[in-house]
Design goal:
Strand order of the largest sheet: 2-1-3-4-5
Radius of gyration: 40 Å
Strand content: 5-15%
Number of strands: 28
Distance between the termini: 84 Å
Length: 818
């Protein structure tokens, strides 16, 4: 026996120390327990000495032989020089044993180091022979696949190599397995046999071995009959270890993860995710004071700011009345907006804030009308009593109609005919109610829809009755519409997904981001600010607004860009909407232009729409385009896999922040159930496979608790793109609420600086605005570069503040950014 040490006394079994060669001092070789590779194997603790030049195959051969003999613990000690050098250097025998025992690694850890290293074809072939001879079937599959990957051998070539090695084996009469060439080792076949593997007794490593082999076949992208043949061959070679059902489940699962979501589907999903994450940077598209108030009130109401913008856009447009933009024969100040979100999302609170000033105007108009009608009736009575043939019959007063809520299309048309050059707004909390009222009395929904469609175009309308006195015409049917709708009833209202009559295309749809319900204390600011804006708009004289020359040029390029994008869209409904996108942008631009004229009257020409304003409208156009794309994916039955994954992600974010289960996904979706059946998977397993794919793509993580599988969406996806194509940025500090409106009628809150890289227009220091504020002016046509000094000694850099409420930013990008 060897010399006893404290370390050795703690070892319960007899240790054996295996060396790679016989070049050892005679005194070491003579000690019992020190062996060289090839000696008989006895039970005990086996320590294999691996020097720097020991081949991988020698170590694996010794480990696998000991494992096959079930001879006990296996550890490996690595040293950079031959063990004989340590002996020659004067190491005591006991010290050498302690060193080996204390610093040896488990064989599994040691062998795993080789998995990242490359192999020569010769070494690969030799180790493969060894693995086929010594390893159990599942471990053999893992080792062979690892060898193939390390040697970078194609799967087809590798299969031929393995077949050649396997066919060269011979079985002798004693039941020992030998190679026809040089014998490596004799192993009893009984040690290689196991029972048929099932889900219950397959461990993760064994499953992964089969999965790797299946994936290797699927990744070859062969024609179906060749692929099926190879999979069948794989099963037949392993059917003593894997049942047919388990193998079929593995193949089906691999197909879903590998074939169900193709690269083009991943790209489309990324595009849809981009659309789904679309947001508006309010500071860049609205005057500073309005943007600040809008965001503040949205936070107080705990809603997405776009829910306030939707009714505000329609309200501003309706008050603009007879304003038109001199494009396409006259673009009217008409915008129809619709907010799509579930019930209880805060739509009523948003509408109440924005529309309350209009309701007050309507109440005041109603009161005035009552007085006017009394005076009219008195004058009419006097006229009828008068015998003066020269007297003129008094004119019946008309009710100023700011707001419609519950109304029929016939009553709306009649009231519009009385408005002359003024517009009105039809606001319904639920758009469904508006459409339900269209055929309330006529019974002809088609005719009512056609009449409504015509109002969006703002064309003259003639209503003829049998009685000529009851016939009338509408010279300027400026009717805005705003309202909301729930996702699940969207298709009940907009029934035709292809939008044959163009009703969908006339609406600007917003899909707000929902916020967690909570109480927030505070007062809304817009309730005090909007009456000033609405009153100013209501008293304006209508104008025909023209695009500035540079804006005209930009718009021409924009139309061409939109045209190119339409050709890339296959969805008929989206194509129809996109065909009106350029018109939508002009209508939004006109509303923005009037808002900017209110907030910066001295720096904005009401008769000319600037390039900066048009580009801010383009930002809104980008948002509405994204929202409409996403809306169609969510409300239209679609078996497109990218749409399905988007809906899973969206549902996980909106409804299941703690994790959405497979059951949550498939129980209400016949499309997913059908896809699962076609893929040969149970619905729950199919959805779990999709969860894994989404996790792989970075959209969340999969959590398994027992048999429950949950997908937790990553809510911090950063798909937003910087909106650098606007020039309305204000870097000034926020003013207290009581300092926001300084001028008479609140018309001059924060001057806007328009920069287009060619002509810079800034307000002059020798000029006073209506509130007497001193400002700075540079003549039109003068160019300033970053850092250029002005006469007042002030140096301008991109984004540097000039004064409170003014800033200068870098230029505007080309249309291609759209």
């Amino acid at each position: 026996m060897y010399a006893s040490t404290s370390t050795q006394q703690s070892i319960p079994c007899k240790p054996f120390f295996w060396f790679p060669n016989t070049e050892l001092p005679i005194s070491v070789i003579a000690i019992p327990g020190f062996s060289t590779y090839g000696d008989p194997i006895a039970p005990g603790h086996h320590y294999i000495i691996a020097t720097g030049d020991t081949p991988e195959i020698e170590i694996k051969k010794q480990v696998w032989e000991i494992q096959a003999a079930d001879a006990g613990l296996i550890k490996i000690y690595g040293c950079q020089q031959p063990i004989s050098n340590l002996v020659s250097a004067g190491f005591r025998f006991e010290e050498l044993l302690d060193q080996i025992i204390d610093y040896s690694l488990d064989s599994d850890k040691w062998l795993s180091i080789y998995r990242s290293s490359d192999l020569t074809p010769e070494s690969t072939h030799a180790i493969a022979q060894l693995a086929i001879s010594l390893l159990p079937e599942t471990e053999k599959l893992l080792e062979l696949e690892s060898l193939r990957q390390r040697a970078k051998i194609p799967a087809k070539t590798w299969e031929k190599i393995i077949d050649t090695i396997t066919n060269n084996e011979t079985i002798n009469t004693s039941g020992k397995t030998q190679l026809s060439g040089k014998s490596i080792v004799n192993v009893d076949n009984a040690q290689l046999s196991t029972g048929v593997l099932t889900i219950e007794n397959l461990d993760e490593t064994q499953i992964q071995a089969i999965v790797n082999a299946v994936n290797a076949i699927l990744q070859e992208n062969r024609v179906d009959f060749i692929e099926s043949s190879k999979l069948d061959h794989l099963y037949r070679n392993n059917r003593q270890f894997v049942s047919q059902k388990v193998f079929n489940d593995i193949v089906a699962g691999c197909r879903v993860r590998y074939n169900e979501v193709l690269p083009e589907d991943e790209l489309r999903l990324k595009s849809l995710m981009d659309y789904n994450q679309a947001l508006i940077n309010w500071d860049e598209v609205l005057p500073t004071s309005l943007a600040r108030d809008l965001k503040h009130d949205a936070d107080v109401l705990n809603i997405d700011p776009v829910m306030l913008w939707q009714p505000l856009l329609s309200a501003v447009s309706s008050l603009a009345g007879g304003f038109k933009l001199d494009e396409y024969g006259g673009i009217p100040a008409v915008n129809w907006t619709c907010t799509v979100l579930p019930s209880g999302g805060g739509k009523t609170r948003a509408d109440s804030l924005i529309l309350s000033p209009l309701r007050q105007l309507q109440m005041s108009a109603n009161a005035d009308y009552q007085e006017e009608i009394k005076e009219y009736k008195r004058a009419l009575t006097e006229y009828e009593k008068s015998e003066d043939s020269q007297a003129q019959e008094p004119e019946k007063p008309a009710l100023r109609k700011y707001l419609f809520e519950v109304a029929t299309i016939q009553s709306v048309l009649k009231r519009l005919s009385e408005q002359e050059n003024q517009g009105s707004l039809w606001a319904r909390d639920e758009i469904k109610g508006l459409f339900s009222s269209l055929n309330q009395f006529s019974g002809n929904e088609t005719e009512a829809i056609e009449l409504l469609l015509k109002l969006w175009d703002n064309k003259e309308t003639f209503i003829d009755r049998v009685d000529i006195e009851n016939s009338y015409s509408i010279a300027n049917p400026g009717l805005g519409i705003t309202g909301g709708i729930q996702n699940d009833i969207f298709r009940k209202v907009f029934k035709d997904a292809n939008d044959g009559n163009g009703m969908q295309a006339r609406f600007l749809f917003a899909v707000p981001k929902q916020r967690q319900k909570k109480y927030i204390e505070g007062d809304c600011r817009l309730s005090d600010r909007l009456p000033l804006l609405y009153g100013w708009l209501d008293n304006l004289n209508p104008e025909l607004v023209k695009l500035a020359p540079d804006a005209q040029k930009y718009f021409a390029s924009l139309v061409n860009t939109i045209g190119e994008q339409i050709e890339q869209v296959s969805h008929t409904g989206i194509r129809t909407w996109m065909n009106k996108l350029d018109t939508h942008i002009l209508r939004i631009a006109l509303a923005l232009h009037l808002i900017e004229c209110f907030y910066s009257p001295s720096s904005t020409d009401i008769k000319t729409l600037s390039l900066g304003t048009l580009k801010r409208a383009v930002v809104f156009g980008q948002y509405y385009r994204s929202a409409f794309h996403i809306l169609q994916e969510k409300v239209t039955p679609n078996d497109d896999i990218a749409s399905i994954l988007l809906q899973i992600y969206d549902s996980a974010v909106q409804k299941h922040p703690s994790g959405i289960t497979a059951r949550d996904v498939y129980r209400e979706s016949r499309i997913i159930q059908a896809r699962a059946k076609a893929a040969g998977r149970e619905a729950s397993a199919y959805v779990a496979d999709l969860f894994e794919k989404m996790s792989e793509l970075g959209y969340g993580e999969v959590v398994r608790i027992g048999r429950s599988v949950r997908f937790i969406a990553n809510q911090n996806l950063d798909f937003s793109k910087p909106l650098e194509d606007v020039d309305n940025v204000d870097n000034s500090p926020e003013l207290p609420p009581d300092e926001d409106i300084d001028c008479q009628q609140g018309c001059c809150q924060s001057p806007i600086v328009n920069v287009d890289n060619q002509i810079i227009t800034v307000i002059d220091s020798n000029t006073e605005c209506q509130c007497g504020q001193k400002v700075l002016e540079i003549e039109a046509g003068q160019s300033l570069e970053a850092g250029q000094s002005l006469e007042v000694g002030q140096s301008l850099e991109a984004g540097q503040s000039l004064e409170v409420g003014q800033s200068l930013e870098a230029g505007l990008p080309p249309v291609e950014g759209f």
